[in-house]
Design brief:
- Three copies of one chain form a homotrimer.
- By secondary structure, the first copy, chain A, is of the alpha/beta class.
- The first copy, chain A, has three domains: about 250 residues, 3-Layer(aba) Sandwich (Aminopeptidase); about 90 residues, Glucose Oxidase, domain 1; about 80 residues, no CATH class.
- Chain A is about 30% helix and about 25% strand.
- The first copy, chain A, is built from 14 helices and 19 strands.
- An eight-stranded mixed β-sheet of chain A has the order 1-10-12-11-13-16-14-15, with helices on both faces. Chain A has a four-stranded antiparallel β-sheet with strand order 5-4-9-6.
- In chain A, strand 4 and strand 5 form a beta hairpin.
- In chain A, helix 5 crosses helix 10 and helix 12 crosses helix 14.
- The radius of gyration of chain A is 26 Å and the shape is elongated.
- Chains in contact: A-B, A-C, B-C.
- The interface between A and B is medium-sized, with 33 and 26 residues.
- Chains A, B, C: Pfam families: DUF2172 (PF09940), DUF4910 (PF16254), HTH_47 (PF16221).
- Chains A, B, C: This is DUF4910 domain-containing protein.
Chain lengths: ~425, ~425, ~425
């Protein structure tokens, strides 16, 4: 097993990525892309600050050199360099003395989770602030505090990163994860790490029916930018999409959120596989929770983009707090996620809609060596007929209206069991993918 | 409460309308329209005798001055002036002596209900006759009777009456009741009285999404005439229709007969409301029973016209007899019907199909003051998110394919609970009704 | 009862047809057509050897004068003149001495059914061979055998035979059976004999709504040839098709295999009739078993062709062996099959989609003598309303979208019970078949 397949590799990469102060724009995001770029050939696409993306405007870059809050005794009660979520993400600059009463308006903490520091952002309204645990906040004494945020907003770009593995068909599978949170584990780094793992696996397949596009982007504004650039391309070519996040944590099971219209191949494949021993769960689409799949599934696009995670959909207490760390996430669940997702996409490769090129009557299979030339009915022959039956089903239902999952369902078998028959008929040019 | 909202008002109006000798044409019908015209601005539309209406011909007006049947002793065994259903409705004139044996061919009675006088009509074949109770008929002795009907058939018009309350949209709700039976209570006057009550309520709503059209017409030939005049207009604009009759009697429950194709808003709303506490019943369309909804639902029109009544669909013994009187009908059930129908049409106002005007990705709700600008996940916020969730659902499914009932169903809530979110998004021009 | 309706007739015909050495081409097939041609006016359509039919090529005619296998002692261990399936059907000529070891490659027998001679063909690869029981084969002693097949392959034609009974409509019902096996009973002669019986019945109907086409053809290559000639005609006109075979044997029940798309009238009628006392069974289409219906249901045609048989779909041990003989088949089941199929096609005559020619409102039935001109509600009248109700249903749903089976289902009655109402409305030109 190569190093890149090991838990050690993912652990090392995690440790390198975790401390970086990311936001939806700026140097932390680019630095993170550079690290992933060592292992997959990422192309960076940039969108200028201030340009419009549908109903939104690309925000300026946020550069934050330092941020801390001193109590009346000069102790750092918040310090970005200790834990980078202690500064309100996208905070405007400040350097002033302030009384505790007024300061309270700039502090964020969680009464329900008194030991945790919350992760808070204010991208679309200028504010300054600090995040701290409720326990720390309760200990603050009246007096004069000093609030320092050495940040600036700079015209620059919002960046997304992508790479493509070409397949026999231009029809495309899109896999994406977001990369914009600072020091968060499960609800941040788990997604890009699994995406990288899947890239490494799919790159090694001997052939690919579909083209695979891998995308890293800042959440929401990033997927909107992706859609601004590729929306029409996706409408034409995408057969399945998957937004990947929260791939660690305790639950053993992958949970897939279906796409809005449930018309993608993956939407259809996932419950089919469940009937034949796969253990994931499926929940319907909703625009109320989740991540970038909401943008892909907006009414103007309605793309077949699903979302996968472990704990996210049921919620986990550490979500968006300092408790979402490497220990809570774990490295092993990431490797398990990569394995399970690869198996699913291997099955996905057998899913296609075909046109029978000899649709008028049955083709003469005997003349192609696919059918016995002596016609004698014996029980033995009937027992051996499974592959021949697959071929007959594929040819009869090769009408551009049934896909291979439909045909497998008609036989009450898993689509992966038809791989051999599909291959022989494609080789004989009796089936052509539509 | 104004007089027009009281039981007394409806009781007085009933007493004024009951004795009038109505038929499908003629002075009794016009006189009745005049009385309703005091309380709603009715426009009268007239169709000339003899003109064609689809497969039918407008009949002449029937003017009947007097009608009675004298027994050999000179007693009036039938007398239109005592009870106007004692003359066969639309009877031709007669003035002759006649032996009992021959007379029997001109008498109508009900062996199953011996005390009741039946209400009988012969619009489309010329006949003369009298209606009497089976008890009276059994007492008739052989001898020479005198039959007098002082009627004439006059070229004139068939009249319908309507009024419209405009709404923001040209899309239209049609409400109709028939007014052609002589002294009948539940199966006649209850319908127009409830229609008037609904008019008074809807007129007072501060704004109306839909346009409401109220129609009074003689049954069958009248609704055919309405269709002849407005059929194409209805095909283009009608979102729901409702034929109202038999609104009195004992049963507490309104029973709605669905339209033929179950494609109207009302068809969809009625069972939706049942899931959230409304108590009415719904039965499927049938062309075998009922009233004017059969014409609206004929294959050439297939309009979304439902029918509502209390007892009619299950039948009631008094139907089309002298027993269908004020006592059997009651006034209170009419007021209850008005209340219930108003509630249903208030819910109907929240039912519409919208187009999201920012369909590419999610719109930026924060910039419009509809979304918090600080992103911090707390349990408290999740509890308050109901209206925001409604907005997200309305925007995501604002695709011209889902209406607000669909969207409410997706959330397992009543469409009336989304009123606030609908209003805010319409105000921001993020939703436009299609 | 005429002779042609008797069991004796079918028994005599069977005896004449059984010994003929048929194949998919050649003199045996033509001789069999000639015999059927005495009782139905068959038109013969011929396709030249070597011409292409879709993905196939018409094979040469096989003429086989004699075939036998002599053991070292000169005994005939196989002899075409004793039982014509003892020669491999479509065997190439041979005349040589051969040792037992080598001869074994040319022998066919059934270890599972040691007393039976199998029926084996090799149409699409040139071979010679003999079929014998496993019991006989086991007794063969080493030594020199003499194998003689006096056959030749001749450029000629492949022939199909058809006849048509015209109906009021050009819409067509196709009934077919195959005729290409040599001495086989249930899985050969039962089908054409029942087809002939149905022809005799349908010819005698006083009128026919539909046109009926009866076809005899060699299996597979014959139905492909039929499609080559009539495929476009069928696409335009066929409302139902039925491939008939294996109509004898023990099971009392007819089993229908539905067509691929289940869009034919027969597909819809068969389960409808089951709800009203008919006892046949229905199984879904599959391209894996069966006969010519596989060609008719191929993706390029997708014709509404069902298949009917008794034992075939569940399998029977005698299938394609010398045990499939008159005794196993029986004559009585053929007569029973003819009766049952006639009943089903009589019901099929009531199945059609109609357009109401007066679709705007209800037509005036009273003016046509179809409705009472006096309107008086009595219980007695309601009880008599069944036919009138049928008429109202047929008119309201005479919208080109509902057929008579749909309308019968809406009333929970059998389509055959609406015959009278259908007839009256067609006579009045209120309904027109579409």
């Amino acid at each position: 097993m190569s190093y890149q397949e090991t838990a050690e590799f993912y652990s090392d990469l995690y440790d390198e990525l975790f401390p970086i102060l990311r936001s939806i724009t700026g140097p932390g995001l680019r630095q993170s892309y550079d690290i992933f770029g060592r292992y997959m050939p990422l192309e960076i696409c940039s969108f200028k600050s201030g340009s419009r993306v549908f109903d939104w405007k690309i925000p300026q870059e946020w550069h934050c050199e330092d941020a801390y809050l001193l109590d009346p005794e000069g102790n750092k009660v918040a310090d970005m360099k200790r834990l980078n979520i202690e500064v309100l993400n996208y905070s405007e600059p400040v350097d002033r003395d302030i009384e505790l009463d007024e300061l309270q308006n700039h502090l964020y903490s969680l009464p329900d989770l008194p030991a945790a520091v919350p992760y808070v952002t204010s991208y679309y309204k200028k504010r300054w602030g600090f995040c701290l645990s409720q326990e720390s906040r309760d200990k603050l004494r009246p007096g004069t505090y000093k609030a320092v945020v050495k940040s600036e907003f700079v015209d620059g770009t919002l960046d997304i990163a992508q790479t493509v593995l070409e397949g026999q068909s231009k029809k495309e599978v899109m896999l994406s994860s977001y990369l914009c949170h600072p020091s968060m584990a499960n609800n941040e780094l788990s997604g890009p790490l699994v995406l990288l793992g899947l890239y490494n696996r799919i790159k090694q397949w001997p052939n690919r029916r579909y083209t695979y596009r891998f995308i890293l982007n800042p959440e929401t504004i990033g997927s909107l930018s992706v859609l601004h650039m590729l929306g029409e391309h996706f409408k034409e070519n995408m057969v399945s999409g998957l937004v990947i996040n929260c791939m660690g944590g305790e639950p053993d099971e992958l949970v897939f959120k279906q796409s809005r219209n449930e018309q993608g191949i993956l939407d259809k494949l996932l419950p089919h596989l469940n009937r034949f021993g796969y253990k994931h769960s499926n929940i319907p689409f909703s625009p109320l929770k989740g991540s970038d799949e909401r943008q892909y599934n907006s009414p103007g696009f309605q793309l077949p983009v699903c979302c996968v995670s472990r704990a996210f959909h049921t919620g986990f207490d550490e979500y968006h707090t300092s408790l979402d760390n490497k220990e809570a996430m774990g490295i092993d669940p990431l490797l398990d996620s990569i394995d399970k997702l690869e198996q699913i996409f291997l099955a996905h490769e057998q899913c296609a809609t075909f046109e029978n090129t000899c649709p008028y009557g049955e083709p003469n299979l005997g003349s192609r060596g696919l059918y016995p030339t002596v016609s004698m009915v014996t029980k033995e022959r009937e027992r051996q007929a499974s592959e021949l039956n697959d071929m007959r089903m594929l040819l009869n239902y090769g009408d551009c209206e049934h896909d291979t999952i439909d045909i497998a369902n008609l036989q009450n078998k898993c689509v992966t069991d038809m791989q051999s028959a599909i291959g022989k008929l494609e080789q004989q040019s009796l089936l052509e993918m539509v």
